Amino acid sequence: MARRLDGDDGLLLRYQPIVRVRDRRLVMVEALARWRGDPVALGPGSFVPALERAGLARRLAAAVARIAASDLMRNGTPAGLAVSVNLPVDELEKRDTLSWIADQLRAARMPRHRLAIELTETSPVRDFSRLGRSVRRLRARGHQVLIDDFEMDDRRRRLLRLPFSGVKLDKDFVQSLATSARARQQVRRLARQGLSMTAEGVSTAAIWRSLRHLGVERAQGFWLARPLPLAALSAWVDRWRASQAG
């Protein structure tokens, strides 16, 4: 697997649309890694942990960033679309992270502000100050840096004191909004802190309608779109726009 990853053989990306709640506009996609398999591609849980244990987290992240940047700069892809990629804390904290990210974007001629970084929860934060410095460096270069999979009563709440661009609300948190006053209260509290929020796992029209009232800026989930091959993205945009007109 390590040898194949060098040339991106075997690695597939799917793109899940992220839309702005106030005007339903597509503003970003999340790049989701898959591994070619027979008869179906493997999800990240089947190979990402093994790669991270083998010390290949950076190689995977660089490959995802490289493919995503190249894909989004192709003709026919919605202009100006941003893409987010996942990065574990151990890699985000390294001083040369800015350098290898810049290399991937330079090769594709993608502007830096169009690549966002999602901090995953694969390992605990051991050095709070060091992480803060890393987040500041990335943001100074124009990247959004987001806390991924933020849960209700999340034990990582102290990370909110660092200069992250925003949080992505975990799908279970989002799906509890319809029935849990405590969940809604916590989302309103995050909004009062001025944090940009993206709701993951939006699965019903009722959840979608509640997001604007709660101050959630962006949304993604199966009610909007499943993760798509790049070739299917433009067709989805056309269908999404038509559904608004209707």
Characterization of this structure:
The protein is an alpha/beta fold. It is about 40% helix and about 20% strand. The chain has ten helices and eight strands. The protein has helices at about 1-5, 50-55, 55-70, 90, 95-110, 130-140, 170-175, 180-190, 205-215, 230-245, and strands at about 10-20, 25-35, 80-85, 115-120, 145-150, 165-170, 195-200, 220. Strands 1-2-3-4-5-6-7-8 form an eight-stranded mixed beta barrel. The termini are far apart.
SSE topology:
Layout: H1 2-6, E1 11-20, E2 26-35, H2 48-53, H3 57-72, E3 82-87, H4 89-92, H5 97-108, E4 115-119, H6 128-140, E5 145-150, E6 166-169, H7 171-175, H8 181-192, E7 196-199, H9 205-213, E8 218-219, H10 230-245
Parallel strand pairs: 2-3, 3-4, 4-5, 5-6, 6-7, 7-8
Antiparallel strand pairs: 1-2, 1-8
Number of strands: 8
Mean pLDDT: 90
Ranges with pLDDT <50 over ≥5 residues? none
**Straight-line N-to-C gap:** 47 Å
Main-sheet strand order equals 1-2-3-4-5-6-7-8
- Proportion of residues in extended strands: 15-25%
Note the overall shape: globular
In helices, the fraction of residues equals 25-40%
Number of helices: 10
The helix/strand series, from N terminus to C terminus, equals HEEHHEHHEHEEHHEHEH
